[in-house]
Amino acid sequence: MKKIFIIIGIIIIIIVIALGIRFLFGGDEDTWICKNGEWVEHGNPSAPKPTEPCGEADQSAIIVTSPQPNQAVTSLIALQGKAKGMWFFEANFPVRLLDNERNEIATSYAYTIEDWMTENFVSFNGKIEFKVDKEIDGILVFEKANPSGLPENAEKFEVPVRLIPEKETMVVKVYFNNSAMDPEFSCNKVFPVDRKIPKTDAVARAALEELFKGPTDNEKNESFFTSINQGVKIQKLVIENKVAKVDFSEQLEFQVGGSCRVAAIRAQITETLKQFSTVNEVVISINGRTEDILQP
Fold first, then answer.
1. What is the pTM of this model?
2. Exposure winner among 20, 130, 222, 286, fewest CB in 10 A?
3. pLDDT tens for each residue of 280-291
4. Which residues of 177-210 are buried (b: 16+ CB within 10 A; e: fewer)?
């Protein structure tokens, strides 16, 4: 008899525990429950898995996926995420960029192409451009559209970002041969392409360094090619009285033969340097030699 009471007691305990678990996780209803920020099945729900976020994210009317908190950004910030329809008015809402003292740097809007007349989340995109002189902390403020202007209807969501100044750039020309523009290959006939480089006082050297990189894939597709060997180094460059004297490593003439190729090499270097108003004449040397270099 004692064993029977023990077995009955164990059964009662199991039933109580099972009922308690079902109570904690939503009772007897077959549904989806939010657990650790994710939707999980409870029982055998007939409804599809919810698409809206659950847990802490469900408490917010806006979720920003770009930029991420404390992300370093330069000149342009891509805005992406989703917000509940009530956050929009006429399919957009304002976005402001502030500095660390909450002074306004730039303003823009985030937009949706989805139906925003809903209580559900809809995706948004946008961009905001800015310019700063030094690296600083910033705050990106996503503001609920508030056409009424009433303070009680105002809401905002803030994302801290790191604002990085964009390096100033300049454009130089480099000169290549081109088989489409000069199908007969006139040797000393070269053609310019533009290259964007960081701003520098040593612009002539920078232009030559771009020249020695050779044409890009896009430029090759446009029939540009170079007659200059890879791996050429600039050992010295001096510009005086509108004469550019430039000394190169031996790689410039390594296995270079034929008067046509020699003329093409000289033309590429000379025209690249003569684009500058400070250069009228170019003297090329290799390891200090000028007389016996680049022989056909």
1. 0.51
2. 20
3. 999 999 999 988
4. bbeeeeeeeebbbbbebebeeeeeeeebbbbbbb
